[in-house]
Amino acid sequence: MLETSAGLGQLMTIMIMAVALGLDAFSLGVGIGMKGIRLLHILKISLLIGLFHVLMPLLGMFMGYYVSSLLGQVAALVAGGLLVLLGGHMVLNSFKTSETRMVDHRSLLGMLLFSLSVSIDSFSVGVSLGMFESNRILTVLAFGICGGAMAVLGLLLGRRVSRNLGEYGEALGGAILLAFGLAFIF
């Protein structure tokens, strides 16, 4: 009986962490979705986020005890920096014509930067979990599924909102990402 309740407690903890990490992908997905994103790009970005939400905590778990004291602040700064760069880029791009834009969030580089920025905090969580006995497969699958699903929801919500915002959607989406990046840093 004691093992069953301990296992259930561990499962609940993993699910709460998965949802918390997925909320990041959801809220930032709203910002990206406001640019007026196609369903195919929503699928691609969400799959990449799900993949990163599996790989990053898995890598973190393997790092575990060795770097846990150094990683917390560094991970938040890197995630914040990436979001500030991506958000600032989106705001600047909203004022440019389509011929003068540099990196598009739908490009492979843009999708990778976004996926990494919303998944880097799961690396820190993975480091913490690496110090404890936990079911790695269950943990990374829960993180990946939750991250990908919540990214889809955020991107779809942002897409719906963007229809009402018109040309200002990209600037607002970039401002949201910029704000989250600054919140990560400070």
What can you see in these coordinates?
The structure is a single chain. By secondary structure, this protein is mainly alpha-helical. It is elongated and about 55 Å long. Helix 2 packs parallel to helix 4. It is built from 6 helices and no strands. The protein has one domain (2-185). It has helices at 2-33, 39-63, 68-94, 108-130, 136-165, 169-185.
Which blocks of ≥5 consecutive residues have pLDDT under 50? 98-102
User: Radius of gyration in whole Å, from Cα?
Assistant: 17 Å
SSE succession: HHHHHH
Query: Kindly state the mean pLDDT as a whole number?
Result: 76
User: What would you call the shape?
Assistant: elongated
Our measurement of the CA-to-CA distance between the termini, rounded to an integer number of angstroms, reads 45 Å
Oligomer: single chain
- Structural class assignment: mainly alpha
Helical run tally: 6
Please give the largest β-sheet.
Answer: none
Percent of residues in beta strands?
under 5%
